[in-house]
Specification:
single chain, 86 residues, alpha/beta, 3 strands, globular
């Protein structure tokens, strides 16, 4: 997908990913990102209206936010990613 290609090319500091998207499945995108050597190290935070925190983490997400997140929740999630980075 375009998003996965862009992640490989741009190497963002983190990716905020919804699991319910119009053209692709967020779980498949997460799996693709976490199984490719060029994107494996990019932290992915799932942001969803669904209560899927444990599922998200078990499938390889680095964090979870319930939608719609507040700016403080987003900031906190990103700070948590920094604290666990190598």
């Amino acid at each position: 997908s375009d998003g996965i290609r862009m992640a490989r090319e741009m190497q963002p500091l983190a990716i905020l990913l919804d699991v319910m998207m119009p053209e692709s499945d967020g779980w498949e995108v997460l799996n693709s990102l976490k199984s490719h050597p060029e994107t494996l190290q990019i932290p992915v935070v799932i942001c969803s209206v669904l209560d899927v925190k444990q599922l998200s983490l078990s499938l390889g997400a680095d964090g979870y936010l319930h939608k719609p997140p507040s700016i403080d929740d987003l900031r906190s999630a990103l700070e948590n990613l920094e604290s666990v980075s190598p």
